[in-house]
Amino acid sequence: MNRLKTIFSLLAFASLSFGNCKPINGDEQISDLFLYYLLFQALANATEENCTFSPNSSDALFNDEWHLHNIGQFGGTVGEDANVSPVWNQSISGNRVIVSVVDDGLDIRHEDLSQNISVTARGLNLLNGTIYPTHSYPNSFHGSAVGGVIAARGGNNLGVRGAAPCSKLVGVNILEKSTIYTSDEYRAMVNESSRVSISNNSWGSPDGYGWLWPSSSLWQQGVNEGIRQGKSGKGTVYVWAAGNGANGGTIVAPVLVDNTNYDGQANFYGVMAIGGIGQNGKKAAYSESGANLWVVAHTQGNSATAYTTAISTTDASGSNGLNVGGSSGDYSLGNYTKKFNGTSSATPLAAGVIALLIGKYPELTWRDVRELVAYSARKNDSIDSDWTTNAAGLNINHKYGFGTVDAVNLLTRANTWTPITATLITQTELSLSPNTPIPDNDIVTGATVNYTVGSAINYIEYVDVEFTSNHTYFPELRIEITSPSGTKSVLSEPHACVNPYNNSLCSSGNTSIASMTGSSTYRFGLARHLGENPNGTWVLRVFDSSATDTGQINSVQLRIYGR
């Protein structure tokens, strides 16, 4: 305990010294380098607190956290929550599991977060180049809200409670930068990755455009390093917000815009894309669907006509952040907010549940974790017409992925899980270049390409589809691919589109894949075929939903990840 107090004293001393980011005067006796030396020494010798948590203890706003314990307090479906309480009752709280919050900063002095800030992992502020990740602007709050959903301290008689109330947070402030470089993305993915079990990313490509956004090679390199070397070689688990751009209209009159597969970060094989459902268990109108979607978690949803209750969590302290103190029906205390929403809040809920898993079973690898999440997911909204079963027996749905994150199901499945020991094989198949014309204004026949796979893999973990086309208006295309086992995945649907560079409607004749991305090839991701055998003939079909614009399927190439 004395060592811990010493560490916090040094951290406080250094943070006060660096917090205002002012350059030191030349005649000051204690230099920046010396302060950094003290801080680094404290971190090097530190160990994370062994936190204890009683689920029967008090947190003032816990009854508002329906996403953790839904008893119908806001008119939702009883039991439609992350199902964490029975896990807490087994003394599982995510103790010492480090979660990186990659966001717009993290309020490490917050009364309900400070006890759960990691003392072994250094933060990173890409705005000012320090290890101090706290928000720099008064309206920033997002990362602190994310952090609260994951790891607000439980049982301290304050505010809210995180899903993993004894897990530890390390902040990476990337989003306060006005210009984010690919090198920033890389650094955000690998910061302290040897210590980080989970990287939470409630950010991504801009929403509401219907545009294709490839991920950078440096960002991909960072994720690849994290999954291969992170968490002492077991691999960091990356969770990624699926996106909030599905609906460009209203709840009553929706207009389809974004699919999470249009985001080249959310559809990367090294991450799990997380969608959002409301307190009724149904998809939030804004939450993006996609064949790459892994699972969903709870956030603000909607009825047939209106949005329902949002998420209660930590806000930036005092008058900063989203809640300036009782504004617009929020809590009177500005340290908390009950207005957090989007897949931004669903993603950290999934991260918190995963932290419970890793806290109990720390030897699990990133591949074990993602498959456990898939196999344990609960089938929500069971009457939805898109539910089907893949050839491995997994429930799949473009709106919900494999289903809803459920802590009890996850820990139960892990109890009998056989760890994955086989090496991950990545096999890039030969490119097929048929140059097949896509019939114009034809949603019945379409264009078909048969693609044969013969590989050493017999169990799919993920699939990339490299699709090349010169069609002059991509947003009018429907692209489907069917596996040899007969499982169909929709890669793209006809959708509304806005050019993000001039904020005008996308123009006919000039909205090809190449005009959006700089390349005529775009990579789609497939999660839905987990566990299937990839060998045999895959069938790609493309339909054109409107007249005038034309083009071809120039080439197709599959990359299979599996064992």
UniProtKB/TrEMBL annotation:
Residues 418-563 form the P/Homo B domain. InterPro entries: Galactose-bd-like_sf, Kexin/furin, P_dom, Peptidase_S8/S53_dom, Peptidase_S8/S53_dom_sf, Peptidase_S8_Asp-AS, Peptidase_S8_His-AS, Peptidase_S8_Ser-AS. One of its GO terms (molecular function) is peptidase activity. CDD domains: Peptidases_S8_Protein_convertases_Kexins_Furin-like. Gene3D superfamilies: Galactose-binding domain-like (2.60.120.260), Peptidase S8/S53 domain (3.40.50.200). Keywords: Calcium, Hydrolase, Protease, Serine protease, Signal. SUPFAM superfamilies: Galactose-binding domain-like, Subtilisin-like. This is Serine protease. The active site is at D103, H142, S344. It comes from Leptospira vanthielii. The keyword Zinc does not apply. GO terms for biological process: proteolysis. It comes from the Bacteria. PANTHER family: NEUROENDOCRINE CONVERTASE 1 (PTHR42884:SF14), PROPROTEIN CONVERTASE SUBTILISIN/KEXIN-RELATED (PTHR42884). The keyword Metal-binding does not apply. Belongs to the peptidase S8 family. Furin subfamily. Pfam families: P_proprotein, Peptidase_S8.
